[in-house]
Amino acid sequence: MPVVTEPRAAPAPPTGRPRRQRVVVLGSTGSIGTSTLDVISGLPDRFEVVGLSARSRREDLFAQAARFRPEWVALVEGDGEPGELLPGVEFLTRPEEVARRVQSPDVDVVVSAVVGAAGIRCTWAALEAGKTVALANKETLVVAGELVMSLVAERGGRLLPVDSEHSAIFQAIAGRPEGIERLVLTGSGGPFRGRSRAELNDVTVEQALNHPTWRMGPKITVDSATLMNKALEVIEARWLFGCPPEKIDVIIHPESIIHSFVEFVDGSVLAQLSPPDMRLPIQYALTYPDRQPCPARKLNWRELSAFHFEPPDRQTFPALDLGYEVAARGGTAGAVLNAANEVAVDAFLDRRLPFPDIVRACRAVLDAHTFDPRPTLDGLLAADRWARQEVRRWTSLNPPARRP
Ligand code: MG
Questions:
Q1: What is the pTM of this model?
Q2: Distance 38 CA to ligand 1 centre (A)
């Protein structure tokens, strides 16, 4: 398997003290974004915030600007008025401007924490400019993994995983990717673990959002309930670690303490353990290859009694099959699955689609799409647009009452 990245030494300034890394946080008001700023505020000698972008949470964004004093902030779905923003902080409103700013020579690290395929444009721009990207936006790799990994290799950037499972694997590999037999992604199983297929027909939005171990945004929480999150993570691991899907396993581990395993050819297995707290993988991506004290919760070994494992129930949660299928096919399949899932999850959250239909709609759209094995980035974005339309068409043709 190829090496994910090689660390590059920070430039040594004349004073002998490394200069602070200049960080842009894309998606700064979401769950990962706020945790990132929490980590950065604990390491003021290492990092400074130069740019923050959010979709629509204006007050939160402006409060972050007042606290971190970035050079610019961007609100891509707002009224375009800077209003009460601090003087001296530039106010951007267009994604193209953000994409241009992340390429600036002044930027060292871009934390990509936007939800969904909307995160691709700026992540791509950062990698195009050879930046270090701490990637929480797994959709970038689900949609365009093959092209993104080629771009990283071509432009000399670095892609460091923030997703807890992929961070665990990255930590276990520790820069030596030789001799890997198998990657084992762990998953909590979500709020509906142990239920039968029939029992999922009437689950509510509130039940789906009640995750047993992680506190996250609504999209990824619903993905965890369908196991689509694990399906997307199989695809993410396939590209990030260059690992064929038949060497990627998924195991349910309800405690969410072991974040993943790597099995090596000699039979040795390395894992990474910590309480479910995203600040640890975020900080590791930022300080890699160094380790620093972290605000994340620590394991209390006296309170631990047992770890449990079980195979995923692929009858009840067919999303995993879609993940493996898409990881094996590559091409436009990831863009189509991801877009279909985004629209279907939105419809579920709006109470327009029953829970089991999220994955059913994804299956239907994936089956209806004209597969292209070697798409360009534009081709992937076109496949994404097509899939969004197709889900809307599928749901309008199949109102809940008439579905089998
Ligand atoms: Mg994860």
A1: 0.93
A2: 19
CB of 308 within 8 A of CB of 26? no
CA 399 to ligand 1 center in whole angstroms: 32
Ligand 1 center to 275 CA (angstroms): 13
Q: How far is the CA of 40 from the centre of ligand 1 (A)?
A: 21
How remote is the CA of residue 389 from the centroid of ligand 1, in Å?
28
Q: In the chain, what are the domains?
A: 21-162 (3.40.50.720), 176-274+297-402 (1.10.1740.10)
**CA 402 to ligand 1 centroid distance, Å:** 35
Report the distance separating Cα 22 and Cα 322, nearest Å.
Answer: 39
Pairing of strands 109-112, 90-92: unpaired
Report the pLDDT value the prediction gives residue 404, as an integer from 0 to 100. Answer: 44
Whole-angstrom Cα distance, residue 357 to residue 348?
A: 8
Give 214 Cα–ligand 1 centroid separation in angstroms. Answer: 10
pLDDT tens per residue across span 100-142: 999 999 999 999 999 888 889 999 999 999 999 999 999 999 9
CA of 397 from ligand 1 middle (Å) equals 33
Over residues 195-201, mean pLDDT: 93
Question: What pLDDT is recorded for position 80?
Answer: 74
Predicted local distance difference test score (pLDDT) of residue 15: 60
- What is the 165 CA–ligand 1 centroid distance (Å)? 5
Mean pLDDT of 274-280: 95
| Buried-state track 114-135, b at ≥16 Cβ within 10 A, e below 16 | bbbbbbbbbbbbbbbbebbbbb
Q: How many Å lie between the centroid of ligand 1 and the Cα of residue 340?
A: 20
pLDDT at residue 14, as a whole number: 56
Q: Ligand 1 centre and the CA of 17: distance in Å?
A: 35
> Is 127 within 8 Å of 240 (Cβ atoms)?
no
Backbone angles phi, psi at 130, to 5 degrees: 75, 25
Categorize the per-residue pLDDT at 3 as very low, low, confident or very high, splitting at 50, 70 and 90. Answer: very low
CA 164 to ligand 1 center in whole angstroms: 5
CA of 90 to the centre of ligand 1 (A): 33
Q: What is the pLDDT of residue 398?
A: 72
Task: For the chain, give the mean pLDDT.
Answer: 92
259: left (phi over 0), alpha (psi -120 to 50) or beta: alpha
